[in-house]
Specification:
heterodimer, A: 483 residues, five-stranded antiparallel sheet, 13 helices, B: 174 residues, alpha+beta, three-stranded antiparallel sheet
């Protein structure tokens, strides 16, 4: 997730509050501790403060993380009604390599409340309260959440590394509870529909505010106007399902970057512009691009072009672009092996017919750029070697994650493989908080989720270049404490 | 911004009709912390008996049950024993763990209750359904354990029982 557009939103917000004491708090968050005494959120085990989390027991540190995640949101949205979150730990599935981490969501939904922008349309409880100006169901929380206590309690759970309770998103081998909760609270505040994607059915027969802005570009229909069968079909219609909210749409051109591409310059028989996946590790491809001749990497062991062992044709690769097949080892290992013999950059060719290699991982030892390319493109290049000249670069005609000027939502096929529709696409660059993968590069920047919240009806705390806050009604609200 | 922590014990609402798991669960023969769910049968949605509490009566709230959409989640669950490979009913401990894992991913409105307020507001308490859940598994290509958020019960059961090959195909690590 990028921090480039709002580099210091929280810091500026806090500064403004100090300088302008008349400003009302953006929102108030109440955490209901639902754990019994002595366990979970009340665990008295002594703990050492970590990265801004000053809790002196495990229970205190866990609570502090839940509060910190809530604060990051509540500093940027406005509500006169306290946002109530019921929180608890839970004994959930976990083994050495997989686990349920946490869950969260709206606890209540409302329609036809006072000031509701759209009639007969479901709104998330916290949002409905904020718009109505009162707690519509005081007996219920607005959001519920739980997280898996076994990450700390079971030494066999994810290698026994445990939860990370620091506030600096520097979790190392641990799992960052703050990043997970920041994402999950986003769903509870409004980044989710209430449609059953298995059947296509609307919640209790009425549309919801999220689906109001969900459209299938292929059919031209909005989700609330579709039949159940049409919604089921649309839920897997990547890349044609988009968010049409005007605020998000108005800012993506300045936020999303151009996606990586590969241009084959020669020979003419295979020349062209092809999609590519940038890597999460190593340096990005420079804006000017990298041009060079391609050499197929050989390691002489097993699948000899997978680059998983030291390369045996280093002299040929030196100063050129290495082509390596996906599979059998980490992407970082392949790139480091090519780097060791002087490659300027690396192309990873997919080993399955569809899509691009995901190019994830991290290793500070990587110092050259790399991209993933489609299997067919890799096959074409191999068929013309030697004598293939390419340029790794960016496609200026595209925005990574957009379609026809709209930001895409996640609509993979089959629907069971993804958290469909209620997330941004995984193709957005920079990565976004509300993508289904909670990437390790998270900060407290909530990126386009704020514009999304504006679309569905939240009033935002906006930070202007002079450091003043404003709600949507104008900067004068700073001095009078509200709109 | 202010935040408050209220210590207290609130009754956790458990969904009792729905039960975990997806019929398409992986056939992995590896021993798992969570039992592999291998056979399921549909649940039957029944309208609950509604008894307004005092607060609802005083507020003029009218309760109406939602018959609703057919539940996505099945009611009957069998698991494959990790040691014998035989199918069996889950132990109470296994059932409780599966229940806590899968209930939040129930995306059916069946059995919930509409609350009609005198001013025209209609509300529904979701009883822990329609939640989003973060799950992880280690990607064999990247070595990373990256949380992935999902709203699908199938995804959770799939990821928690995935073979390395399946995990690679599932990867959406950036």
């Amino acid at each position: 997730m990028s921090a480039k557009r709002r580099p210091l939103p929280l810091l500026l917000a806090l500064s403004a509050l100090v300088l302008l004491p008349a400003v009302a708090p953006a929102a108030t968050v109440v955490i209901l501790n639902n754990d019994p005494a002595g366990t979970g959120l009340n665990d008295p085990t002594p703990a050492t403060p970590v990265a801004g989390n000053m809790g002196m027991t495990l229970g205190e540190q866990r609570v502090n993380v839940l509060e910190r995640a809530a604060e990051i949101w509540a500093d940027q949205i406005i509500s006169d009604v306290p946002i109530v979150i019921r929180a608890q730990t839970a004994d959930q599935a976990c083994d050495a390599t997989s686990a349920v981490l946490a869950s969260a969501g709206a606890a209540v939904v409302f329609q036809n409340f006072a000031n509701a922008p759209l009639a007969n349309t479901w709104y998330h409880g916290a949002l409905a309260n904020a718009i109505a100006g009162k707690d519509l169901d005081p007996a219920e929380p607005d959001i519920t959440t739980q997280f898996n206590i076994n990450l700390d309690a079971d030494p066999n759970c994810l290698g026994g590394d445990g939860w990370y309770y620091g506030f600096d998103f520097n979790q190392g081998d641990q799992t960052d509870l703050l990043a997970v909760m920041l994402h999950e609270y986003g769903h509870g505040l409004g980044f989710a529909n209430f449609i059953n994607e298995a059947s296509g059915a609307l919640f209790n027969g009425s549309p919801d505010i999220y689906s109001t802005f969900t459209r299938d570009l292929e059919t031209g229909e909005d989700w609330n106007d579709m039949t159940n069968a049409e919604r089921v079909a649309s839920a897997i219609n990547d890349p044609d399902v988009v968010w049409t909210g005007p605020r998000v749409t108005s800012v993506i051109d300045g936020f999303l970057t151009n996606p990586n591409n590969l241009v084959i310059n020669t020979p003419a028989a295979i020349a062209g512009n092809f999609a590519a996946q940038g890597a999460s590790f190593g340096p990005a491809v420079p804006q000017m691009g990298i041009t060079g001749n391609v050499v197929l990497a050989t390691d002489g062991v097993g699948e000899t072009n997978d680059g998983c062992e030291a390369l045996t044709n280093g002299a040929a690769i030196n100063g050129n672009i290495a082509l390596i097949d996906r599979g059998n080892c980490n992407f970082t290992v392949k790139v480091i092996n090519a780097q060791a013999v002087g490659a300027t950059s690396v192309l990873i060719a997919n080993n399955v017919a569809t899509g691009l290699p995901p190019m994830g991982g991290s290793d500070p030892a990587v110092t050259i750029p790399s991209i993933g390319i489609a299997q067919a493109v890799g096959t074409s290049i191999k068929g013309e070697l030697p004598g293939v000249n390419v340029t790794l670069g960016y496609d200026p005609t595209q925005l990574a994650g957009a379609n026809s000027g709209f930001l895409r939502v996640h609509a993979p096929n089959p629907v069971a493989l993804g958290s469909s529709i209620s997330h941004w696409t995984i193709d957005a660059t920079p990565s976004l908080l509300m993508e289904p993968s909670i990437t390790p590069d998270l900060t407290d920047d909530v990126d386009l989720t704020l514009e999304h919240f504006d679309d569905i009806g939240w009033t935002l705390v906006e930070i202007f270049s002079d450091g003043f806050e404003s709600g949507d009604c104008g900067s004068w609200s700073v001095f009078f404490g509200g709109c | 911004m202010r935040s408050f922590l209220i210590h207290g014990t609130l009754l956790l609402s458990f969904l009792v009709l729905a039960a975990p798991a997806a019929a398409e669960s992986s056939a992995s023969d590896q021993a798992k912390t969570a039992p592999e769910v291998v056979e399921t049968a549909p649940a039957t949605a029944e309208a609950p008996t509604l008894t307004p509490d005092v607060a609802d009566v005083e507020a003029g709230v009218i309760l109406r049950p939602i018959v609703g959409d057919v539940p996505e989640m099945p009611a009957l669950v069998k698991v494959r024993d990790a040691e014998t490979g035989d199918m069996r009913a889950p132990t109470p401990e296994e059932m409780a763990r599966l229940q806590s894992t899968m209930d939040p991913l129930n995306r059916s409105d069946a059995g919930l209750v509409e609350r009609h307020y005198p001013d025209g507001t209609i509300g529904v308490r979701l009883d822990g359904r329609f939640q989003s859940m973060s799950v992880v598994n280690r990607n064999p290509e990247t070595g990373e354990i990256t949380p992935t958020c999902t709203t699908s019960a199938h995804v959770v059961s799939h990821k928690l029982a995935a073979t390395p090959e399946e995990t690679e195909e599932d990867s959406d690590v950036r």
